[in-house]
């Protein structure tokens, strides 16, 4: 990853705003999660959306509007490439990543907020509202994890009170993180190729961007994704993984994921 240092001071300030936005959105999500009606609808791409997705989206827009930066959110208006291709610095947001897990009530969903500069994530925040785990990463500074953050949490607080990632690996087993809701034959075939070098392999099913976080923190060795994802699914995790010494690679080209493409879909990738 090429890190562009034009905004070194602003990056921490902007990350602090993203942290607060993620926590605030998580509060809205939990309010809906504890209710009896999610108001589930099906979008044009045949994926579900709930009132929690929209409330989290609104909360994030409100928290980040003071930055004056463009915001590309899964639940917002998706401008044409001709309108956004000149964006040098912008927010890339998934207000509720893992809506299927939210609907299943298995707690494995997150708020994802990334800061993108020159098509590269330079800051990422991921917050799991139910378990109250917050991950924040800035390439050049590092990735940190904190539990039960206060509403006024900042990157400085996370660095002082949280855990720097990756943590030291204890077990000798090779751990592969895979999707809980989106497994296919191609992924199973990829795992079989890993078994040749790692016969002691262990598979862990996990929802949302938490799989990327597992690699960043060292509780998983690899996360392969063969199938559809969008840029907002991976951007925050990409910054978090890279700042922790990991990366997201497209195996077909051996290159990193890039962002603000004309087609917002990601190619197949491996986090390692």
Would you write up a description of this structure?
This protein has 272 residues and is α+β, with helices and mostly antiparallel strands. The protein folds into 2 domains: 8-164, Fructose-1,6-Bisphosphatase, subunit A, domain 1 (Fructose-1,6-Bisphosphatase, Chain A, domain 1), CATH 3.30.540; 175-271, D-Maltodextrin-Binding Protein, domain 2 (3-Layer(aba) Sandwich). It has helices at residues 8-33, 51-64, 81-84, 99-104, 155-161, 185-195, 210-217, 231-243, and strands at residues 41-42, 48-49, 71-73, 89-97, 110-117, 120-128, 133-138, 142-147, 163-165, 175-179, 202-206, 223-225, 248-250, 255-256, 269-271. The strands form 4 sheets. The chain has a 7-stranded mixed β-sheet, sandwiched between helices. Helix 1 packs antiparallel against helix 2 and helix 7 (210-217) runs parallel beside helix 8 (231-243). The chain is globular.
CATH level-1 class of the largest domain: Alpha Beta
CATH topology of the largest domain: Fructose-1,6-Bisphosphatase, Chain A, domain 1
Backbone CA Rg: 17 Å
Low-confidence stretches: 1-8
List SSEs in N-to-C order.
Answer: HEEHEHEHEEEEHEEHEHEHEEE
Residue fraction in strands: 25-35%
Largest sheet: 7 strands, mixed
Tell me the CATH superfamily of the largest domain. Answer: Fructose-1,6-Bisphosphatase, subunit A, domain 1
| CATH A-level architecture of the largest domain | 2-Layer Sandwich
What is the total domain count? 2
Structure summary, number of beta strands: 15
Label the overall shape: globular
């Amino acid at each position: 990853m090429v890190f562009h240092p034009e905004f070194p001071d602003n990056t921490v300030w902007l990350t602090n705003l993203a942290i607060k936005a993620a926590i605030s959105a998580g509060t809205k999500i939990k309010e809906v999660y504890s209710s009896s009606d999610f108001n589930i609808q099906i979008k044009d791409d045949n994926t579900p959306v709930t009132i929690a997705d929209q409330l989290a989206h609104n909360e994030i827009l409100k928290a980040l509007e003071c930055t004056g930066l463009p915001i590309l959110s899964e639940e917002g208006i998706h401008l044409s490439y001709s309108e956004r291709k000149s964006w040098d610095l912008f927010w890339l947001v998934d207000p509720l990543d893992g809506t299927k897990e939210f609907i299943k009530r298995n707690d494995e969903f997150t708020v994802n907020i990334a800061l993108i500069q020159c098509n590269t994530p330079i800051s990422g925040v991921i917050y799991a509202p139910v378990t109250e785990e917050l991950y924040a990463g800035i390439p050049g500074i590092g990735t940190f994890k904190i539990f039960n953050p206060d509403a006024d949490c900042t990157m400085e607080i996370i660095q002082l009170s949280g855990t720097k990632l990756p943590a030291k690996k204890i077990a000798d087993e090779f751990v592969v993180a895979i999707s809980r809701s989106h497994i296919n034959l191609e992924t199973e075939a990829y795992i079989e190729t890993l078994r040749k070098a790692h016969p002691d392999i262990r598979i862990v099913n996990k929802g949302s961007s938490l799989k990327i976080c597992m690699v960043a923190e060292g509780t998983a060795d690899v996360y392969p994704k063969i199938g559809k994802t969008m840029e907002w699914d991976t951007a925050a995790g990409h910054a978090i993984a890279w700042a922790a010494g990991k990366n997201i690679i497209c195996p077909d080209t051996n290159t990193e994921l890039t962002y603000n493409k004309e087609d917002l879909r990601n190619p197949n990738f491996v986090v390692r």
